[in-house]
Amino acid sequence: MHHSGGPGWDITVDTSSVMLTALYLRDAAGLEGTGTPAVSPASPKVRTVDPRQTVAHCGGVAELRDQWSRWWKSLATGRPEAVTNLDPPEFSVFTGVPALQRFCQAHYGAAMTWGRERRSEYTKLQTRREATGRSEIFANLVEEREMELGRDARAFTLNIIELPLSEARAWYIEPQRLIMSQSLPDDEEDLRSFVQPVIELLV
Fold first, then answer.
1. N or C: fewer beta carbons within 10 Å in the chain?
2. Helix and strand tally (H, E) in the chain?
3. Does 3.90.320 match the CATH number of domain 2-13+134-202?
4. Domain with CATH 3.30.2010 in the chain
């Protein structure tokens, strides 16, 4: 996790293990484009499996899509009731959403392996950013906005969740979350195009 802050404001940048799992399950089931926000496919690409037989007795793929979408929205918005602590092998936390429970039971091992590899890559990425000073871009954006306005930033918190997504962009979830492709900071101009309007709104 990277943390930037000043008087009254706070920005954290990290990834999310449970959102990595959710992302893997979505792409494995071939449900790309599902959910709010409808983030782009994972990178590296997840191998797709046909979910129809797995969820045939739980409402089918349409029900899986709906149940996954509701779970993703709760994760993305940080709702208190969001299921973040999974409990294999039964996944009793998904008892009320049997299609999602069944698909998670069938593919959790692969999701965990994939997620562990992505977290390892992300740790290395953060270390490189810290060494080169690239991790300070968010604090710099706040300071630039303060200079433009001639005042200190208003009190705000912004949680940036980086995920390995194929499209270098970001999705703002009001009031204090930003889901971002972890490749976006590689291009400062592109990063600014997505993040600067959010900073301007908050500062």
1. N
2. 5, 5
3. no
4. 2-13+134-202
Q: Identify the pLDDT of residue 134.
A: 83
Cα–Cα distance, 59 to 132 (Å, whole number): 50
Please give the pLDDT value at position 7: 87
User: Chain centroid to CA 9: how far?
Assistant: 21
pTM score = 0.94
Helix-helix angle 98-132:60-77, to 10 degrees: 40
Q: How far is it, in rounded angstroms, from Cα 74 to Cα 80?
A: 8
Instruction: Write out pLDDT tens, residues 137-170.
Output: 999 999 999 999 999 999 999 999 999 999 999 9
| Distances in whole angstroms, Cα of residue 56 to Cα of each of 46, 69, 183 | 22, 18, 37
End-to-end Cα distance, the chain: 22
User: What is the 8-class DSSP label of residue 176?
Assistant: T
